[in-house]
Specification:
heterodimer, A: mainly alpha, MetI-like fold, two-stranded antiparallel sheet, about 75% helix, B: D-Maltodextrin-Binding Protein, domain 2, two-stranded antiparallel ribbon, 19 helices
């Protein structure tokens, strides 16, 4: 935090200048890492996106050709539509599960740390491993879910969950919620715990009911935490790839191709690295725009909470 | 052709063993005159080639240093290696990729040397055709696999069918499938990987239309010709098999992992690859099976000729040593080793002698070569193999979907647009 003073400007300014240089020195390692591992690759991707860049053979400059192609690429638009659909559904599902869980494990009660650990456990599993596990669970012949439902008499015969869009999509949503909700829960938990107990106490004395306390006290104070959880969840969902690649190979009749999946296919199946790079840049722009919009929506930039 | 995860595990172990042996060979090889060729081979093509290399390293002066690369990453890895100047001298390449690699200008022209071989004309014609680009030969056959039809004799007996009578038409196959399914439980009459495994289905399903004289691409591979009466009939045959519950439900989402379901002993009939004969004989001796050619929709058989081509990286300094090694592979000794481990002979002129004393069912694989086809296109990955390509999508939509006409028109249009975009 900067100290602001008006009384004696000249020595203060010198001091501020010196501390400014020191600040630059402190962040230099971080800046170097960001430059080498983010800025330079992005610039190189931009450079690639302006070429017809096959995996084998020589790249050729085509200017904005890849971007022009993108606008009329129906498959890219379908992938964008599916990704948006998935992001909305899965984010709502994750929050609907994670928020009650966070409230549940916030209070001190017997075995609460055991609950926290159990709920958090799936987060530790890699997404690819989790997908493979669920492929087996959902396998119609040797899995768990379909034979179990048949045995319980819920379905007439065995249903191949991954062969139909709706059931396959539902399976993936359940898998992702199982895998991610614990992480979102922990973030929300830190937000809940940061609310001073005195405030809740005062509200209770003033006669606020449980729902009122939640709506007018907890939620506003949780805004920053929610923004963080929301951005992480939305960004993660937009970049989703593993689950579709591993669990459904793009889904029944290609109906589960996310944007990243499409970029992967263009780059490494069709070997159009240039077009893949252009799509990546477009996705980056979309992600930045969405993140700015979310921060604005939750007014995180404001000083007052 | 396909490699399941268990197989991949085996590969990993083998790879490590192999690395250890190559290292051992490398250390013993300080003798100056001999050369060491570096060579890549894709995973999933069986043991045969590795055994040939072993024999060559044990006998000859030159050594071959083999690196195994997962088949799905071979193209990327090879391209990166070329860019970095680390490319191997030679490569065992899925033959369908040879045109694309040759077109990219990365392969050595072998025309003169190949034509000087006395047995050039008896080399597997599909492989040589795929290895030829603009009248120059860049690839020569290394391993040959054809698709064939297999039936489980035990299940035939249980279902009251004659186990020695090979089905000749799809009407027969469908009738048999129903009888086998009637055994109940988890015994099924037929199997195919219908969940977006383009590679499996081009291998086992297109012979139905090839046998009847149709094809999915025009001869110059510039027009998609998917929507033919023959293909309609083939789709109907498979739809009918599914509708009569003769195919396990898992088929609809099998992306190729369970391609060898026949080996579990509960599938009555399936179109598989000739490599699988070796697998069945050595690893599943309990399964009593017969093989025959895959009938076309009107009964005339056909097959897909797959396997690998041998290609040489452009500008390699060890060209002479590479040629010497390939000549060894084509020798009677080399061919015998290949055949013993499941690869069909690449030389038609000595095929009978090579197969002498081996499992007689391999002969069916050889017969298939004569009627076999392979699509020639620079866009094989995009059109056929990609699990999100038009062919894989078409298979799932046409056989398992509700809108067959839509599946045909969508796939036809998308294939054509991919072909046009690639011109």
């Amino acid at each position: 935090m900067m100290m602001s003073g008006i009384a004696s400007p000249s020595p203060r300014r010198r001091k501020r200048k010196r501390s400014g240089w020191r600040g630059v020195l402190y962040i230099a390692p971080a800046m170097a890492l960001v430059t080498v591992f983010f800025v330079l690759p992005v610039l190189f991707t931009v450079w690639m996106s302006l070429h017809k860049w096959p995996l084998l053979g020589k790249p050729a400059w085509i200017g904005l050709g890849n971007y022009v192609r993108m606008v009329s690429d129906a498959r890219f638009m379908t992938a964008l539509g599916f990704t948006a659909y998935y992001t909305i559904i899965v984010t709502i599902a994750i929050f609907a599960v994670a928020f009650p869980l966070a409230i549940f494990v916030e209070k001190q009660r017997p075995l609460v740390s055991a609950y926290r650990t159990i709920i958090f456990l799936p987060v530790v599993v890699g997404l690819a491993s989790a997908s493979l596990l669920w492929v087996w669970l959902a396998n119609v012949d040797s899995g768990l879910i379909a034979p179990l439902m048949q045995r319980l008499g819920l379905t007439n015969g065995r249903i191949n969950l991954l062969a139909d869009f709706d059931t396959a999509f539902l399976t993936i949503i359940v898998m992702v919620v199982w895998k991610i909700a614990g992480f979102t829960m922990i973030i929300l938990l830190t937000g809940l715990q940061a609310i001073p107990a005195e405030l809740t106490e005062a509200a209770r004395i003033d006669g606020a009911r449980r729902w009122q306390r939640f709506r007018y006290l907890t939620l506003p104070l949780m805004r920053r935490t929610m923004a963080l959880a929301l951005i992480l969840s939305v960004t993660g969902s937009i970049l989703a790839f593993d689950q579709f690649y591993i669990m459904t190979s793009g889904g029944p009749q290609n109906r589960m191709i996310s944007v990243v999946y499409y970029i992967f296919n263009q780059s490494f199946v069709s070997f159009n690295l240039g077009y893949g790079a252009a799509l990546s840049i477009a996705l980056l722009a979309i992600l930045v725009a969405i993140s700015i919009f979310q921060l604005w929506l939750l007014k995180v930039g404001d000083e007052r909470p | 052709m396909q490699s399941g995860s268990r197989q991949e595990e085996e590969w990993k172990v083998l790879k490590r063993l192999l690395a250890a042996t190559t290292l051992a060979y490398g250390l013993g090889l300080s003798v100056a005159s001999a050369e060491t060729i570096s060579m890549w081979v894709r995973s999933g093509i069986g043991e045969s080639f590795k055994e040939v290399v072993k024999a060559y390293n044990a006998a000859g002066e030159d050594k071959v240093e083999l690196t195994e690369v997962p088949f799905s990453e071979l193209v990327q890895k090879y391209a990166t290696a070329i860019a970095g100047g680390q490319a191997p001298d030679a490569l065992s390449l899925d033959l369908i990729y040879t045109p694309a690699f040759a077109a990219a200008g990365q392969l050595e022209d072998l025309s003169d040397w190949a034509k000087s071989l006395s047995y050039f004309n008896s080399l597997s014609p599909s492989h040589v055709r795929l290895g030829t680009y603009e009248d120059k030969i860049y690839g020569l056959p290394l391993s040959v696999e054809t698709s064939i039809f297999a039936w489980n004799k035990d299940l035939y007996r249980k279902a009251g069918l004659d186990p020695e009578k090979a089905p000749k038409t799809w009407e027969e196959i469908a009738a048999n499938a129903e009888k086998i399914r009637a055994l109940g439980g988890d015994t099924y009459g037929f199997y195919f990987s219908g969940g977006g495994c383009g590679g499996c289905m081009i291998f086992t399903f297109t012979p139905l239309v090839w046998g009847a004289g149709a094809d999915i691409l025009s001869a110059d591979s510039k027009t998609a010709t998917l929507d033919t009466p023959q293909m309609r009939k083939a789709v109907d045959i498979y739809r009918d098999l599914v509708a009569k519950d003769t195919v396990p439900a898992g088929s609809a989402s099998d992306n190729g992992v369970n391609f060898l379901s026949f080996t579990n002993g509960k599938i009555g009939q399936q179109s598989i690859g000739a490599f699988a004969i070796g697998t069945l004989v050595t690893q599943h001796p309990e399964i009593d099976f017969g093989v025959t050619l895959i009938p076309g929709v009107d009964g005339k058989p056909s097959s897909f000729a797959g396997g690998d081509n041998f290609v040489v990286t452009k500008g390699t300094p060890k060209l002479e040593a590479v040629k010497k090694f390939l000549e060894f592979t084509y020798s009677m000794e080399g061919q015998k080793i290949m055949a013993k481990y499941g690869s069909l002979p690449t030389r038609g002129d000595i095929a009978d002698q090579v197969l002498d004393g081996l499992d007689p069912r391999l002969k069916v694989g050889i017969e298939a070569i004569a009627v076999a086809k392979t699509p020639y296109t620079l866009q094989f990955n995009d059109l056929i193999n990609s699990s999100n390509g038009p062919w894989a999508t078409f298979i799932n939509a046409a056989i398992y979907g509700d809108d067959v006409d839509g599946a045909f028109s969508n796939a036809q249009a998308e294939m054509q647009s991919i072909i046009d975009a690639g011109q």
